[in-house]
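Q: Start with the shorter request: fold the first protein.
A: Done. Sequence, then structure:
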Amino acid sequence: MSEQPRAGVIGLGMIGGGVAVSLARRGRVPAVYDIRPEAADTLAGVPAPVASPAEVARTSDVVLVAVVDAGQARTVLSGENGVLSGARPGLIVVLLCTVAVPVVHELAETCAKAGVALLDCGVTPGDRAAENGMVAILGGDPETVARAMPVLEDFAKKVVHCGPLGAGMATKIARNVITYGSWRAVHEATTLAEAAGVDPARLLTVIEEADPGGATLLSWQHNRIADRDEIRAIVPQVERLLDKDLAAAQELAAHVGVPVPAVDVTRANGAETLAFSVTKEPK
């Protein structure tokens, strides 16, 4: 790999197209490919797509794969005129699409047979890709990460190396659980309030005024990570409050006829939700 590794991008949708724009803005104009010949027409500084993923591989040191799913990733890598057919030993493939962790290991094994290294790299938020505004959530061995880092830092505002192969994808999946789970919680809360005669906009006003930075969402996990004795000491009190408050929510839900499965699960598992590590002995 050269001192200034050459970059390639496969898939020019919102994320891949944005990544290509960010790379071009930093002076690292990538070779690109998309099944749509016109895909780069509106992407500032990005050249027209080359003929195949193989051609991207031939002219790149790091290839960023921003397709939709596992099936497309397999095709782009191993299909006719795929990346691996044009790769030389030492090429790094960075997988930007969200797939299951076993798929990451499967694709890494396929790449390794061609002398190609693979990094898994979840990214978020996708709508900031063209503004160098995403976080890259990376999994892979440190040596490969170091070689790919100049390219990664040219499209991401922050690169977080989460651990070995698969760790980046596991972290992105966990983040998605928080996102969609919180959406479900907000849905249940809003439906419950509305059924009780509350304008949903008033509920949002209360939440945003009381916690404008959204710190409450992660506050207890920060407490668990810090694992301070003074926080451990209040766990029984917090558990009693959780149980009391969610019991009130269940009573309101029963009264207005609104199902609240997330509330039910959270109350039933309150102790587990609040528990700190059981391996630490009190001082």
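Q: Next, the second protein, separately.
A: Sequence, then structure:
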Amino acid sequence: MAKVVVGLSGGVDSSVAAYLLKEQGHEVIGLFMRNWHDTTGTLEGDCPWYDDQLFAELVAKRLDIPFKFVDLSEEYRHRVVDYMFSEYEKGRTPNPDVLCNREIKFDVFLKEALKLGADYVATGHYCRKTEEIIDGHTVYRLLAGSDPNKDQSYFLCQLTQEQLRYALFPIGDMLKPEVRRIAEEQHLATAKRKDSQGICFVGKVDLPVFLQQKLSAKEGNIHEILPSWRGYNRTDNQDDIELLSQPFRYTVRDGKKIGTHKGAHFYTIGQRKGLGIGGRKESLFIIATDVEQNVIYVGEGDSHPGLYRRALHILPDEIHLVEPSEAMQVGEKRRYDVRIRYRQPLQKATLLQREDGLYILFDEPQRGIAAGQFAAWYDGDILAGSGVIEK
């Protein structure tokens, strides 16, 4: 049996993961990581991390496993939060949860676990891992979780072979109701605790307030673009993947000023709330932001053409493959299922490798493609790769 360090988060999923590993006969250690101290902009509770730690300790006591604590807040601020601020300042939309798994849980935290003599690190993620021998060496595969409503493989889309080597996902084959049932049967303190929401380890936040820690509020104009805008005619050219991957570029002359905002870097593509403009038959959605000119462009209605694009582009150094030997050659095309955000149903697409990076052409136009987010592609249940959307 192995020595396994479980990242006890204070939630039901990691609690049941620890229970299952102990039942399997492993030597289990619960390790709680504190990653965030500041409560600026948080919407729930003064010290959410304190409650999380308390629940994690109660679970460890119930399971009769050692409980340890590590403060990784400096690394988290540097690797995740500073990156997040930097991306929003550029008018991009980062995904801190993907970064948290790549940079913290399966890097800094993993190293702490190895210091404790761990053979593996386990988390409560709803995903699976398999391994096979190819040409004499072990290849690790990251698979979608068995629960289609809770599959969290997208959040782990940047993991490497070395990180997967040490990873265990004990609840990946289970459905959420089953996890809850086990927690109740074992009288775990987290059995009825709500799932965490919001930014990984920070919680639910008022994003503009949170970002104002480093990004200044600055009033700018909101311009409305009508569905008849001439630039939408480009979608007639379905063969030019480079053109289709370009975001629509607007100027203030293309639309009419209909309001003001507090800073273009506080808003994201596809956002509906927070504009403060009413009296419309349909909701207004953000279709573009210009942080240099501090202008937001909006369109009315969920079917507005400015919300949709057929393609996206990923720069060469932003392409990440779970198994590097499966890289595409320049000029090669492959079919994959792709998602550009968590919980989005998988979308049929063609991936085309060119010298200037990877292009993803979707069979159907995609709503709210945002620079800075991650696109992840799947071959069946296998998450094959991912990359940061360049534009």
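Q: Describe the second briefly.
A: Helices lie at 12-23, 48-63, 73-89, 96-115, 161-166, 176-185, 207-211, 241-244. The chain has a mean pLDDT of 92.
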